[in-house]
Amino acid sequence: MITVHHLSNSRSQRILWLLEELGLDYEIVSYQRDATTSLAPESLKGVHPLGKSPVITDGNRTVAESGAIVEYLIRKYGRDRLMPDEDTAEFVSYLHWMHYAEGSAMLPVMLSLYVMRLGEAGKPLHPRIESEVQNHFGYMNEALGPRDFFVGDTLTGADIQMTFPLEAARSLGLLKGFENLGRYLDKMHERPAYKRGVERGGQYDLGN
Ligand SMILES: N[C@@H](CCC(=O)N[C@@H](CS)C(=O)NCC(=O)O)C(=O)O
Question: Distance between CA 84 and CA 26 in Å, rounded?
Answer without folding.
Answer: 25
